[in-house]
UniProtKB/TrEMBL annotation:
Pfam families: Phasin_2. Residues 12-110 form the Phasin domain. This is Phasin domain-containing protein. It comes from Spiribacter curvatus. It comes from the Bacteria.
Length: 122
């Protein structure tokens, strides 16, 4: 009988603690991976743009080239503003997805814990 009680306790611990902990850890790792990927992509893009602009600045040799460069900088600034806005929206959407998935996970785990507690009292 002791072995049966031990197995029942292990099953309850798995359903109430260990399983949900693993599920949340997986969700958090998936989120972290997506966030890191997005950050690395953004960093590479911003670095590439910065390098292009630095190279363009090296090509300035007279006042006409300086004028052209300055006009290009305005375009680049506008594009960067749009890119940063898009990246911020992407991160916000990823955050919202994480929150929604975490909420679903909590709801499922509360339901399972309630069912387990109900079964154990019977």
């Amino acid at each position: 009988m002791t072995n049966e009680n031990f197995n029942k306790a292990n099953e309850q611990a798995e359903k109430m603690f260990m399983g949900p902990t693993r599920d949340y850890a997986k969700l958090a790792m998936d989120y972290a991976e997506k966030m890191i990927d997005a950050q690395m992509e953004a960093a590479k893009t911003y670095t590439d743009i910065g390098m292009q602009q630095a190279r363009a600045a090296l090509e300035v040799k007279d006042t006409e080239a300086l004028k052209t460069y300055a006009e290009e900088q305005q375009k680049v600034a506008k594009e960067m503003t749009e890119r940063v806005k898009g990246d911020a929206e992407k991160v916000a959407a990823m955050n919202q997805d994480f929150v929604n998935e975490a909420r679903k996970l909590v709801e499922t785990n509360v339901k399972n814990a309630s069912e387990t507690a109900t079964k154990s009292t019977k």
